[in-house]
Specification:
With 141 residues, this protein is an alpha/beta fold. It has 6 helices and 5 strands. Strand 4, helix 6 and strand 5 form a beta-alpha-beta unit. Helix 1 packs across helix 2, helix 1 crosses helix 3 and helix 3 crosses helix 4.
């Protein structure tokens, strides 16, 4: 089963100062055979957050963080999943979470659409908002 990496997992993977770096690295190595994915939202979040020049020991620019993302996506098993679903789909999104939950809800539904799962460090995601979400959500502890 292919695993969509949430932005927080991608950042932990690339940023050694992140407290979850080793967990992300361990997960990542295990996904080389089964596959892993990024999508426009996770890639954008990665470049936007790590591209902030104020992050201590970070890449320092959006170009440098994009270069890091290029390197990550060259690793075995990578797939790019385009945004192929809509929040307007009431069957896929019978109810919407609050404004802070929408992106996570969308990413979880995108993983389900691609017959995969979503890996995240975020323990606050309400998987019940997405049909099939409980089976597709992988919270890393």
């Amino acid at each position: 089963m292919i695993t969509l990496l949430d932005t927080n997992v991608l950042i932990a993977l690339a940023y050694e100062q992140n407290p979850f770096h080793l967990k992300a690295k361990t997960l990542f190595r295990g996904l080389f055979k089964t596959g892993w994915a990024t999508c426009p939202l996770t890639e954008n979040g990665f470049v936007r957050i790590l591209g902030n020049p104020n992050i201590e020991n970070g890449p320092g620019s959006t170009k440098a963080s994009r270069d890091l993302l290029f390197a990550l996506c060259a690793a075995p098993g990578h797939q790019f999943w385009p945004d192929s679903i809509s929040l307007l789909d009431e069957e896929r999104f019978p109810q919407l979470g609050g404004v802070k939950a929408l992106t996570d809800q969308y990413l979880l539904a995108l993983a389900i659409e691609n017959q995969g799962r979503m890996a995240t460090f975020d323990k606050r995601i309400d998987a019940s908002l997405v049909p099939g979400g409980a089976q597709a959500l992988m919270v890393l502890a």
